[in-house]
Amino acid sequence: MSTDFQQAREALGLRLRELRLSAPGGRLTGTQLARRLGWPHSKIYKLENGRQTATSEDLRTWAQGVGRPDVFDELDARLKGFESHIRSWRRQLAAGHRPVQDRWNLEVERSQVIHAWEEAVVPGMLQTADYARHIFLRYADLQGSVRDTDAAVRARMRRQDWLYEAGRTFHALVWEAALHALIGPPSVLAGQLDRLAGIIGMDTVELGIIPLRASLKIPTANGFWILDDRLVIAEDWHAELWLDDADSVALYQKVWNTLSESAVYGAEAHHVINSARRALNQR
What we know:
Layout: H1 3-21, H2 30-37, H3 41-48, H4 56-65, H5 72-83, E1 86-88, H6 89-92, H7 97-109, E2 113-118, H8 129-143, H9 149-159, E3 169-175, H10 186-199, E4 205-210, E5 224-227, E6 231-235, E7 239-243, H11 246-260, H12 266-281
Parallel strand pairs: 2-3, 3-4
Antiparallel strand pairs: 1-7, 2-5, 5-6, 6-7
Helix pairs in contact: 1-5, 2-3, 4-5, 7-9, 8-9, 10-12
């Protein structure tokens, strides 16, 4: 978890404790407040000590419980401030995958140059509809989220229109492992590999593939996207990180550049894709 995020969560916890101790009706103990709110005492402890991220509803309940409903807007603004950088999947997927794709589409549309690195899957901008459908289904199962798969697939496919607009450039790096991972049936992966082979040569796309046997200057790690020089979106199992400070953007660009030194392009990349396709036919 990022230091900035944790510090912001701890600062919010200190403010919650301050409100509990200065309640208009008299100082409340953690046990008293927990009883009043119908919460386990451990939740009071975790929120005040920055061990748990409050929801907007938690903050409203807390403000009312300590007799200060007027401070809810302040508390909620604090929460939205640090959640704009750490976007938990639990919250993002509450309404399904489609809204997440729509937010991505807005950011992509604002961008002229995108750098992407994926170590385990084909980048969304290059996915077939069938491949994307199986990705969404797998994550819906993992997160227990709403299954709006078809709507999410349509939104992701619309994003690919960006690739056919003059003046745009997509620099994609993919680890070869992603070309062998059976996210769906072999037929789905076969179609996806054919799609990748067809991408090579497009004037708006530069596709680099890092072979499994390539020498690496840094370890492969979680995927990330750099949109122009203004925003990095990095994924983890619990959340997406949206980073817009110059130092973070510069660091991720350095990581991308370092990884790209191990990649092959053009005919060599085509050869790696074809090798994965032949290996799939032999399964």
